[in-house]
């Protein structure tokens, strides 16, 4: 296969850069054999460029390249793996403005958010797992004088990774860094809506000096490329971030192919609880950010707010006023907080849920869907009086909050946990007793107390119930990317 040249792209901020458009296999950008995919700027509606897409046969080629690189990478000195990951962090830092601009154009998110949240997170992720590469260890077991036992943590080999479009480069980093640190080789598929930063990151992998075949990156549709990864017989682990619906299919495909290990980071309908003794202004600000950040396209969005009855009416008024201040506009305007949704399909889906909610009797407190800017913008929206069967009880993945009052701690625990999701939760209180009790009671992988959102490489992240299987970040993810080998030795004790 011949190497494809990059395409020169002019970004809305006036910068020009070389965008690779090929599949990255064996450290080369090559053509794919599936139909090319146009990637669209959701703010302008214009095609940015066409990306090569991988067919099942291309995935076979990528997996073969990874298989070939597998032993060499596994046996590379851990300190050398660490050095390469640190080099990646340096290169991402060098190009952070470009990568943030790429994600902003491809996804519609505000450039300032992309630069200060996504890129800062991606850099710290690479640095954190560079630090982990030479700190992976097993245990020794006390078996008496006649036996010696120990365990090793070994990589799975070829890992398939499938990422979503809401934080394109950050999710890329969360998948790539720990997998490579632990000595795995990878075939990663970007989301078809936002393939650009993945391919750009691939060019940095080559520049950093990773050996060919260690990290392979492809663009493609879920139903073709994604399925080829999930069903592949030589892929030993699949890590997926996306919807619960697709997560369930991934698990089924893994089971029906080769029982590959599965880790899933899925949807949520996270509760955000305000007690009457909380710092009121801070809570209003945090609830607004908890739902409106990234246009609500966040798996941990605090999409269900529960406010203690004595402050409910006042809270509703304050939130309404705060919602009116959300600054929408061009993602490259430094004052913009709120950009367009990622795609027309997502926009239609959210609008349909909003309309369904209104029909089911919910009251619009703020917003209501239609946005004065038109296009793919949806106005930040708050609903009250949402009943149990309302369409608004679904994960909306948009800037839509459902709010209701509560009277007792027992009541709010019951309603907060009354969901099949369990990704995250948040609460505001000045009582340490309330905080600790709630931290015990909430059925969620994360409990944020007196703040909401934000991830750190140190903190494990993942879901309870149908929000996922396994954890990303922290040392927890090391367990997701390594399998335990037990070694047991009979000792001779110098007997002849
Ligand atoms: P969303 O509905 O928010 O777009 P998805 O869960 O559909 O989220 O997509 C997340 C990722 O999963 C994307 O990379 C997408 O291409 C991929 N995907 C979608 N459907 C499948 C599938 N059937 N098998 C494997 N991957 C898929």
At a glance:
This protein is 37% helix and 22% strand. The protein is α/β, with parallel strands linked by helices and 496 residues long. The protein has 2 domains: 7-266 and 468-484, 3-Layer(aba) Sandwich (Aldehyde Dehydrogenase, Chain A, domain 1); 271-456, Aldehyde Dehydrogenase, Chain A, domain 2 (3-Layer(aba) Sandwich).
- Total strands: the figure is 22
Strand order of the largest sheet: 16-17-18-15-14-19-20
Output mean pLDDT. 97
- Number of helical segments? 14
Spans where pLDDT lies below 50 across 5 or more residues: none
- Gross morphology: globular
CATH superfamily of the largest domain: Aldehyde Dehydrogenase, Chain A, domain 1
CATH class of the largest domain, anyone?
Alpha Beta
Distance between the termini: 60 Å
Helix content: 25-40%
Compute the number of structural domains: 2
Name of the CATH architecture of the largest domain = 3-Layer(aba) Sandwich
Largest sheet: 7 strands, mixed
Which topology of the largest domain does CATH recognise?
Aldehyde Dehydrogenase, Chain A, domain 1
Provide the β-strand percentage band. 15-25%
Helix/strand/pairing category: alpha/beta
Evaluate the radius of gyration.
24 Å
């Amino acid at each position: 296969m011949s190497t494809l040249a990059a395409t020169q792209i002019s970004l809305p901020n006036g910068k020009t850069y070389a965008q690779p458009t090929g599949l990255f296999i064996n450290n080369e950008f090559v053509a794919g054999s599936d139909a090319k995919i146009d990637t669209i700027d959701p703010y302008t509606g214009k095609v940015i460029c066409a990306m090569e897409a991988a067919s099942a046969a291309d995935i076979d080629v990528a997996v073969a390249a990874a298989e070939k690189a597998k032993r060499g990478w596994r046996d590379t000195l851990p300190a050398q793996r660490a050095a390469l990951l640190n080099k990646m962090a340096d290169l991402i830092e060098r190009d952070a403005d470009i990568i943030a601009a790429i994600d902003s154009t491809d996804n519609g998110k505000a450039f300032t958010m992309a630069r200060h949240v996504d890129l800062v997170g991606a850099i710290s992720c690479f640095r954190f797992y560079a630090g982990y590469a030479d700190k992976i260890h097993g245990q020794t077991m006390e078996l008496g004088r006649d036996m010696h036992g120990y365990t090793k943590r070994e990589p799975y080999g070829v890992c398939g990774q499938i990422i979503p479009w809401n934080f394109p480069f950050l999710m890329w980093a969360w998948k790539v860094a720990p997998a490579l640190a632990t000595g795995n080789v990878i075939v990663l598929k970007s989301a078809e809506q936002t393939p650009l930063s993945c391919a750009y990151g691939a060019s940095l992998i080559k520049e950093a000096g990773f050996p060919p075949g260690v990290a392979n990156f492809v663009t493609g549709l879920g139903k073709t490329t994604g399925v080829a990864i999930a069903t592949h017989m030589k892929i030993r682990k699949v890590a997926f971030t996306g919807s619960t619906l697709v997560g369930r299919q991934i698990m089924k495909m893994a089971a029906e192919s080769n029982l590959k290990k599965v880790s899933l980071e899925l949807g949520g309908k996270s509760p955000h609880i305000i007690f009457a003794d909380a710092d009121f202004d801070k809570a209003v600000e945090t609830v607004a950010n908890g739902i409106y950040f990234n246009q609500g396209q966040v798996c941990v969005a605090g999409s269900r707010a529960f406010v203690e009855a004595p402050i409910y009416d006042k809270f509703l008024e304050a939130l309404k006023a705060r919602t009116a201040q959300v600054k929408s506009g061009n993602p490259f305007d430094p004052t913009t907080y709120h950009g367009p949704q990622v795609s027309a399909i997502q926009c239609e889906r959210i609008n349909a849920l909003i309309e369904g909610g209104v029909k089911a009797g919910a009251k619009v407190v703020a917003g209501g869907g239609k946005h004065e800017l038109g296009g793919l913008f949806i106005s930040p929206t708050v609903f009250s009086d949402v009943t149990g069967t309302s369409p608004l009880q679904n994960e909306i993945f948009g800037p839509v909050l459902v709010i209701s009052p509560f009277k007792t701690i027992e009541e709010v625990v019951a309603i907060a946990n009354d969901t099949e999701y369990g990704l995250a939760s948040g609460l505001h209180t000045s009582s340490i007793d309330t905080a600790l009790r709630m931290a015990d009671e909430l059925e969620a992988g994360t409990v944020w107390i007196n703040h909401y959102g934000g991830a750190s490489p140190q903190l494990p992240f993942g879901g309870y119930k149908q929000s996922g299987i396994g954890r990303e970040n922290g040392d927890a993810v090391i367990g997701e990317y390594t399998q335990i080998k037990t070694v047991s030795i009979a000792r001779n004790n110098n007997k002849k």
